[in-house]
Design a protein that fits this description.
Oligomer: single chain
Number of strands: 9
CATH superfamily: Bacterial extracellular solute-binding protein, family 7
Helix content: 40-55%
Strand content: 15-25%
Mean pLDDT: 90
CATH architecture: 3-Layer(aba) Sandwich
Number of domains: 1
Order of helices and strands: HEHEHEHHHEEHEHEHEHHEHHH
Number of helices: 14
Radius of gyration: 20 Å
């Protein structure tokens, strides 16, 4: 048994116990095979709080799927990393577990589809329209197909997670001010190297550990959309925010390809439609709440820097070194140009 398989097996046991102590529905302990008359349960686990837009949208998804399926399918949500780290959840999917989580191209690069990682490159997109054009392109379909062959099925790619900004314990007014600062990033190579390219010292750690790390000065900053930064109350321990928007972060929801194939065609359709419709709802919530989060942070003493075009140009120039590392990431030749053309 490989280390990943062993870790996933251990996680499966932990999750079974967690379901009785984390407020989850005990019905979710049993995976109902599709088509046997029992309710099909999908456990949706994520790092964010239930009050963040993605959390609110998954509560909406519960209603949508219940209505579509006539109560024969159910979503049970586990926010705040109740079922463990994202990487461990993905490993459990590879074992065929009925788990869903939020993940991005940077993680899929670490699971055997290296070209997918570019979607998380710094300053790749100029606007959201470019994101949606890319997700509807043949290039994106090809990457999704490759991911399925690795055992992971994307339910939806239309969810806005938000523009990722940088919150620090020291003032950052230009990209040069990031030099040497320890900035928390999710634990994957793409996001680590993306922030290292900007001059920072990227430090991978779970989202749930960031507050204490900032408080103890183990790190000096974190990057994420405003809703996530505020949702984790990071503004209490870091008082400087620069709206650099280094990544326009659309996100995906992923499940076990093996588990998904075990559903009936009708059940698959209901689930895909639910994820897509909930994504549209999420995007509406995101747009409404972003300004609210920013206003709240200001009221709580956060100094906000809106970088000028010249300052942003400095960030983008610094980020160019990231795309020169394509071979190190295992990217296809000319990937940057291929992706840029696909989003036109």
């Amino acid at each position: 048994m490989t280390k990943k398989a062993l870790a996933a097996a251990v996680l499966a046991g932990i999750m079974a116990l967690a379901l009785t102590g984390c407020g989850g529905d005990k019905k979710a302990e049993k995976k109902a095979p599709a088509g046997n008359g029992k309710k099909v349960v999908l456990r949706v686990a994520y790092e964010n709080s239930k009050t963040e837009p993605v959390g609110v949208a998954w509560e909406k998804a519960k209603e949508i799927l219940d209505k579509k399926s006539g109560g024969t399918m159910e979503i049970v949500t586990y926010p705040d990393s109740q079922l463990g780290k994202k990487s461990a959840l993905i490993d459990s999917m590879l074992m065929g577990e009925n788990v869903c989580t939020l993940a991005d191209g940077a993680f899929y690069a670490d699971y055997g589809v290296p070209d997918f990682g570019i979607v998380f490159g710094p300053f790749l997109f100029d606007n959201w329209d470019q994101c949606w054009k890319l997700t509807k392109s043949q290039w994106y379909k090809d990457q999704s197909d490759k991911l399925e062959k690795k055992g992971l099925k994307l339910l939806a790619s239309n969810w806005i997670y938000g523009e990722r900004h940088t919150l620090t314990t020291k003032p950052v007014n230009t990209v040069n001010d990031l030099k040497g600062l320890k900035i928390r990033v999710p634990g994957n190579k793409i996001q680590t190297e993306g922030f290292n390219a900007l001059g920072a010292t990227a430090t991978g750690m779970p989202l749930g550990e960031v507050y204490q790390a900032l408080q103890s000065k183990t790190i000096e900053g974190a990057e994420n959309p405003l809703g996530t930064l505020y949702g984790r109350k990071l503004q209490e321990v870091a008082k400087y925010l620069i709206l650099d928007g280094h990544v326009k972060n659309f996100t995906t929801w992923v499940v076990s390809e093996k588990w998904f194939k075990g559903l009936t065609p009708q059940q698959q359709q209901w689930l895909l439609e639910t994820a897509e419709e909930a994504g549209k709802y999420n995007n509406e919530v995101q747009q409404k709440t972003e300004k609210e989060y920013l206003d709240k942070m200001k009221k709580e003493g956060v100094t906000v820097v809106v970088p000028s075009p010249e300052v942003l140009a400095g960030f983008k120039k610094k980020a160019e070194s990231f795309y020169a590392k394509g071979k190190e990431f295992g990217w296809s030749d000319g990937l940057y140009e291929t992706v840029k053309n696909a989003m036109k």
